[in-house]
């Protein structure tokens, strides 16, 4: 069980071992990653749509997701508020004129949900008997992790500098530990084993990863719960960041989780200024590595 759960992590570390210098190839990899993410999300939706008694599960899933989102929100923000209190991050005055189009970013945040909904309708209405959906999704995820490993290694980031960034490391650990505590506390609410609750809590906003890994191990309904929990984190972060970043930058950066180094980074940059960028990249980078490792380890304990 341990070998099988951790095997899926090997592509991430394999990709991180390669150094590439061809910028055109890195551009191709960027678009491949984006396409693979949506392909995986459609497959996640297909798996949900094919599930027997799907409609009867939706109410339970909504109940579980609401508990997860609220518990994570409270635990993360409380822990990150304390982190900022003891180790404040001074970002200086913010540039109010440099504001991104939050409407555009918010709509972009809804695209993953739309991909899963489309996949769900396809699986429920037309492809209920389509075989090997889970196998294809698993192989697609492994390819995605390999490409992301390549991106992380060749993004011009020094692993040593990222690990030495005290603020970024502290924010990532605070966010990660508080999420795990929230997940553990929610074990009775979710009605799962403690290790499964911790695995679900280890997504840290990486919805394409958590949806497939949790779905493979615990079934498509739980894959949907994990996905919704993480995609809602991203959407909430987009609304939260510009509101709190000037007073509590650690809360804004940390709550974004793994997305702080990519999707929510433009909002962090425009709302908090350049001082937030290396901290956000360090935090998001560390959480991106921790997420698949922790999920693999916790799922292997079942």
Describe the overall structure.
With 302 residues, the protein is mostly helical. The chain has one domain. 77% of the residues lie in helices and 0% in strands. It contains 15 helices and no strands. Helix 4 crosses helix 8, helix 4 packs antiparallel against helix 13 and helix 11 runs antiparallel to helix 12. The protein is globular and about 55 Å long. It starts with a helix and ends with a helix. GO terms for molecular function: L-lysine efflux transmembrane transporter activity. Pfam families: Lys_export. This is Lysine exporter LysO. Keywords: Membrane, Transmembrane, Transmembrane helix.
Total beta strand runs: 0
Q: Please state the average pLDDT score.
A: 80
- Backbone CA Rg: 19 Å
Give the overall silhouette.
globular
Task: Please give the count of helices.
Answer: 15
- In terms of per-residue confidence, which ranges show pLDDT below 50 for 5 or more consecutive residues? none
Question: Approximately how much beta-strand content do the residues carry?
Answer: under 5%
Helix content: over 70%
Intertermini distance: 8 Å
How many domains? The number is 1
Q: Report the order of strands and helices.
A: HHHHHHHHHHHHHHH
Largest sheet: none
- Give me the secondary-structure category: mainly alpha
